[in-house]
Amino acid sequence: MEITRVGFGSWGISGPGWRYAWGPQDDAESIATIRHAVEQGVNWIDTAAVYGLGHSEEVVAKALADLPEADRPFVFTKLGLSWDDNDPASPPVRDMSPASVRREVEASLRRLNVERIDLYQVHWRGAAGSTKKGPPPPTIAGAGTSQVCSYSLARSPASWARMAA
């Protein structure tokens, strides 16, 4: 996988109504912005299930829906933060239990309208649980981490080795 130096981060297009919102966004403008970035050569989009409680992934899907396969950028998303649909203002819970991982990957695949996630990242280090019984390999092209510094990686190599297993 070769990626451009600059990608498109989609936290800012996640819309209002959740704890870490940036405020109201116009989805049509967000879609146009993503398409413009891709037209300018950006070949990857970073999103997360928790951004807008799924809304950001849905906007990314709409932006990519009409693009020919050869022109589609890589899609990266994150897992490990679950939310309460009945209380979107409550803080997300860090959860890497096998049941949560499977539920999250299936929901992200559906919202993104893809058969495979190009890079699936653990959103926050320290999420409870294990990914040993994670999603089946055909749905994930690569795994990684987000919000992790080199110091943290150096201190816990065994936990990151389990992530890759």
Automatic annotation (TrEMBL):
<dbReference type="Pfam" id="PF00248">
    <property type="entry name" value="Aldo_ket_red"/>
</dbReference>
<dbReference type="InterPro" id="IPR053135">
    <property type="entry name" value="AKR2_Oxidoreductase"/>
</dbReference>
<dbReference type="InterPro" id="IPR036812">
    <property type="entry name" value="NAD(P)_OxRdtase_dom_sf"/>
</dbReference>
<feature type="domain" description="NADP-dependent oxidoreductase">
    <location>
        <begin position="6"/>
        <end position="124"/>
    </location>
</feature>
<dbReference type="InterPro" id="IPR023210">
    <property type="entry name" value="NADP_OxRdtase_dom"/>
</dbReference>
<protein>
    <submittedName>
        <fullName>Aldo/keto reductase</fullName>
    </submittedName>
</protein>
